[in-house]
């Protein structure tokens, strides 16, 4: 968890022990983002440096490249495979560490990652990386069978036609080029042998295959036919007659959201590919607005605030036990998932859970903390546990204890001041957007006169109630929007500071000098 003071709190297995680097995570230098492999973390700090911990061989030990991660050249982004990290630096170069065969060793392509041609973005499969250059070319490394070897399509990735984005399954890449064509490489069984799709705007994937959305709203699929690569049974619904706007996947099935609010599914029937039992609820009569998945089930949020589920019952496909909490009487606003369970955040700040009980589907032990008396504002997940961030900056956890569901050891550090979280399965990022605007003081700087504080502040993260504090040096004179100058203020410099809460973080914005901020008081 990243706290408001820039410090980090960790618990659970696979990277939950950060004691070896505690001094680097105490907030002396703020941590802004945290990234992960399967068993290690990497924290990016405001000075551009990186701190790592967890299983050393898979990214927790970055000592071999410490001099390149110390912030002399700022690190701007970190990507990971299951076993290795790749850090993109401000000069366009890339630094790698962790499991060598899985992307931690980039020596074979070092000349292409040294910043001579800037790398702009990095992508990954489970065991390989692909770096996109500013000239539209692509460089790959890591496990050859997992996408690290792109030699067979090198002439298609050399930038003659710019690559604009890269997508992946577990063991293959698909590069979208500026002309709408797609180039694939990696394991054939996982989508590495493409279809020559054209006029593509976006690509989605399961663990085994790809689905490409084209400019006409139609969908093309390839990869393992059992797990979403074959969409022939729903071809008439994916031909663009009704545009597909978004595609979501479980490990082995797809769900396509169409412009009329309806949903089309295909792939493994047991794991979400067959939605026939809820077809009447997915036909667009009530628009579906969001689809979320676990490993083997889907949950669709509809425009009326209700939720529809299908797929493996043990993985969250059966929500019958909590149906009354998902029927829209109290709107569900967002859905989150672990590997086998869902959590629905409702408009009243409460949370409803279902799915595998050991992986977060059963939240009864913390029900009193999720009932909305203190609003839950966001939920973070690992493969088997949930962590709910509440409006008071506290954290509530449940699910698999070894995957973060039991935060008892650090409970005292999670009662307030938390702003975001990261987990071993995803790279959650906390970004505090800087406020804009000014604070000003109006009035005459004379004893007995009233000074008034004003502001033009805005904040992308949300602007809470603003309070003003009037000070003389280190002494607090008063609070509120105005202050009457006293005899004791004569000859002293006064300041006013505007404070507010954005989400759960407090920002303090002093008035600039030309407002004026500092006043000399003279008795008339």
From TrEMBL:
UniProt cross-references to InterPro entries, sorted A to Z: Ran_GTPase-activating, RCC1/BLIP-II
UniProt name for this protein: Uncharacterized protein
Annotated organism of origin: Methylovulum psychrotolerans
Record lineage: Bacteria, Pseudomonadati, Pseudomonadota, Gammaproteobacteria, Methylococcales
């Amino acid at each position: 968890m990243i706290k408001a003071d820039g410090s980090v709190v960790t618990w659970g297995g696979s990277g939950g022990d950060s004691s070896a680097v505690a001094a680097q995570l105490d907030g002396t230098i703020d941590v802004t983002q945290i990234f992960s492999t399967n068993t290690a973390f990497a924290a990016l700090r405001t000075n551009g440096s990186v701190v790592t911990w967890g299983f050393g061989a898979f990214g927790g030990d970055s000592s071999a490249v410490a001099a390149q991660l110390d912030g002399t050249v700022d690190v701007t982004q970190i990507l990971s495979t299951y076993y290795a990290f790749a850090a993109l630096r401000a000069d366009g170069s890339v630094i790698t560490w962790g499991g060598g065969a899985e992307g931690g060793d980039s020596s074979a392509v070092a000349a292409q990652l040294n910043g001579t041609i800037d790398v702009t973005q990095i992508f990954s499969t489970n065991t390989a990386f692909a770096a996109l250059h500013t000239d539209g070319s692509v460089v790959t490394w890591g496990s050859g069978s997992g996408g690290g070897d792109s030699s067979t399509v090198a002439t298609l990735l050399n930038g003659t036609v710019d690559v604009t984005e890269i997508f992946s399954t577990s063991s293959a890449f698909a590069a979208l080029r500026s002309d709408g064509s797609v180039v694939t490489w990696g394991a054939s069984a996982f989508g590495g042998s493409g279809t020559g799709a054209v006029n593509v705007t976006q690509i989605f994937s399961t663990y085994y295959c790809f689905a490409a959305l084209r400019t006409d709203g139609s969908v093309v699929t390839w990869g393992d036919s059992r797990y979403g690569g074959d969409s022939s049974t729903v071809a008439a619904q994916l031909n663009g007659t009704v545009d597909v706007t978004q595609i979501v996947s479980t490990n082995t099935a797809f769900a396509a959201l169409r412009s009329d609010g309806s949903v089309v599914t295909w792939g493994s029937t047991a794991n979400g590919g067959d939605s026939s039992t809820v077809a009447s609820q997915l036909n667009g009569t009530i628009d579906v607005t969001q689809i979320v998945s676990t490993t083997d089930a889907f949950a669709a949020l509809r425009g009326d605030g209700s939720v529809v589920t299908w797929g493996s019952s043990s993985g969250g496909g059966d929500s019958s036990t909590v149906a009354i909490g998902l029927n829209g009487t109290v709107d569900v606003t967002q859905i989150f998932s672990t590997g086998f369970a869902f959590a629905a955040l409702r408009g009243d700040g409460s949370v409803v859970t279902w799915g595998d009980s050991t992986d977060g589907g059963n939240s009864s032990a913390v029900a009193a903390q999720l009932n909305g008396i203190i609003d839950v504002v966001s939920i973070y997940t690992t493969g088997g546990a949930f962590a709910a961030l509440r409006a008071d900056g506290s954290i509530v956890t449940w699910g698999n204890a070894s995957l973060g569901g039991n935060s008892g050891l650090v409970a005292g550090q999670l009662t307030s001041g938390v702003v975001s979280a990261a987990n071993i399965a995803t790279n959650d990022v906390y970004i505090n957007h800087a406020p804009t605007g000014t604070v000003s003081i109006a009035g005459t700087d004379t004893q007995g006169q009233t000074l008034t504080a004003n502001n033009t502040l805005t904040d992308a993260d949300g602007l809470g109630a603003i309070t003003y504090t009037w000070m003389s040096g280190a002494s607090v004179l008063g609070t509120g929007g105005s202050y009457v100058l006293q005899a004791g203020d004569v000859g002293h410099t006064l300041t006013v500071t505007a404070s507010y809460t954005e989400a759960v973080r407090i920002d303090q914005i002093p008035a600039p000098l030309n407002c004026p901020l500092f006043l000399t008081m003279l008795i008339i």
